[in-house]
UniProtKB/TrEMBL annotation:
This is Cytochrome P450. Pfam families: p450 (PF00067). GO terms for molecular function: heme binding; iron ion binding; monooxygenase activity; oxidoreductase activity, acting on paired donors, with incorporation or reduction of molecular oxygen. Belongs to the cytochrome P450 family. GO terms for biological process: secondary metabolite biosynthetic process.
Length: 136
């Protein structure tokens, strides 16, 4: 089930279920500094958080940012050392259900349900390797 959980997590990283909007109330003085040094006041605006962009950041996920690589979420079982990516990915970089006090209340149910559906599908159908080479 560990690998199935990694598959679900990687799928949600590449294809997050929804975006997030946040309202910045007037008078809060919420400012952001742009890369060119300009300061922008965002009071009274609705900010949309684009999880697809956040979860495909090359600074975090490296050159494989657009590739389906569930192994990035696994630890090496034999040595108990994290895989190349697992230890370097900050928790804030994976946010298909958002983070903090306003995160999705149903995220654990959704994750469990995805794992169960996947496991039931695998159990229901027979799979055979087609092609050249031995089964590893």
């Amino acid at each position: 089930m560990v690998y199935i959980a990694a598959i679900v997590k990687e799928t949600l990283r590449l294809h997050p279920p929804a975006g997030t909007g946040r309202f910045v109330p007037q008078g809060t003085g919420f400012n952001v500094t742009l890369p060119d040094g300009q300061t922008l006041c965002l009071d009274g605006m609705i900010l949309h958080n684009c999880e697809t962009t956040i979860q495909r950041d090359e600074n975090v996920y490296g050159p494989s940012k657009d590739a389906f690589v569930p192994e990035r979420w696994l630890e090496n079982i034999n040595s108990k050392q994290p895989s190349d990516d697992a230890g370097s990915i900050p928790a804030s970089a994976w946010r298909p259900f958002e983070r903090g006090p306003r995160n999705c209340i149903g995220q654990e149910l959704a994750n469990i349900e995805a794992r169960v559906v996947h496991a039931c599908t695998m159990r229901r159908f027979g799979f055979v390797k087609v092609g050249l080479g031995a089964v590893a």
